[in-house]
Design brief:
The chain is mostly helical and 126 residues long. Helices cover 60% and strands 11% of the residues. It has 2 domains: 91 residues, Winged helix-like DNA-binding domain superfamily/Winged helix DNA-binding domain (Arc Repressor Mutant, subunit A); 34 residues. The termini are far apart.
């Protein structure tokens, strides 16, 4: 007999049925690793939009766009607001600022390491 899930246990049931499938992605870098999700995010970055408008511009279904938006929201990259019966999605500035800070740190670390290598090479030559 198949396992029946109540809505409140759906995430648990998915995990039991498909233990190797990641159901939610909370890391913004991982969230943007999917090409379709990046395309969804790029459209929202242009201007706030409802799900239906995003779906009309992509070769994916509206439910699929909703799932991608949920992951982007869980990762802190977008937020939504109600507008009648629709939800309008927009970029969450704080999420992008956090990613930018990480990139800046990577760049600063790279420059610091490069300077140390140059200084070491100069000491060995001189």
């Amino acid at each position: 007999m198949p396992l029946r899930c109540r809505p409140c246990l759906l995430a648990f049931c998915v995990g039991v049925s498909l233990p190797l499938v990641s159901t939610y992605v909370a890391d913004p870098w991982t969230a943007l690793g999917d090409p379709t999700r990046r395309a969804v995010f790029a459209r929202i970055a242009q201007r706030p939009r409802p799900v239906g408008e995003i779906a009309s511009e992509l070769p994916v279904s509206r439910p699929a766009v909703s799932q991608h938006l949920r992951i982007l929201k869980d990762a802190g990259l977008v937020h939504d607001r109600r507008d009648g019966t629709r939800r309008i999605y927009a970029v969450r500035r704080e999420g992008l600022e956090a990613m930018r800070a990480e990139l800046d740190q990577f760049w600063n670390d790279t420059l610091t390491n490069f300077k140390a290598l140059v200084d070491q090479a100069n000491q060995e030559d001189g």
